Amino acid sequence: MYTEIYLIRHGETMFNQLNKVQGWADSPLTVKGINDLRVTASNLSQIHFDRMYSSDLKRAIDTVHLIKDYNMVSQIGKIKKLPAFREVFFGGFEGDDIYETWRQVSIAGGMKPETNVCKIIDTLGIKEFRNATKKADERHLAENAKELDDRIMRAVHQIKEESDGLNRVLLVTHGDFIKSLGIKYWTQYSGKGDIEFPTNGSMTRGIFNQSGKFEIVDYNINNSDLINI
Fold it and tell me: Which residues participate directly in catalysis (predicted)?
């Protein structure tokens, strides 16, 4: 027996729409975000979940409740909030223009100014990108590679304990956090370079296998493919 963990990225938010840095800072779901989530929720409505969870940020909480309301085959009580599954923290960059933020990060990483985050990560590598983000943050509060990795391991340990003996749970979390999980645990990741950023409302499926090891087996599955999972 293994336990399935359905990791859902929250719906589009105002900060997503405005291209602002959004980690622990929060902003409301947009109308588009809510409408897109209704499609996701409909596609998940016939899948039985033993429990549902979310991070403790409002955009994730609003998303999980919408999915819960659409589900027709699960008996879900109180939804527990798991702070360990918050988005990556960007410190003093929270709420700033995303392209100006990446420009500063690239300079801190020893590059020429660059606003394309994929190019920065491909050049520096994901660990040095995290470290450069902390270096570029004037307050040095942004999570570096080790801080984020430590939190990821705590988060995975927590959801393992929460889901012990269950068949399937749903957890609403965040794009950069899901991507970080993918880099660490996705069975198809080559171990080099970056991977695509999860879209709003997408599903990434992880499992705890028979030996208790966590692995991601499906990554960034969107609504066109979700019904076939």
Answer: 10 (tele-phosphohistidine intermediate), 87 (proton donor/acceptor)
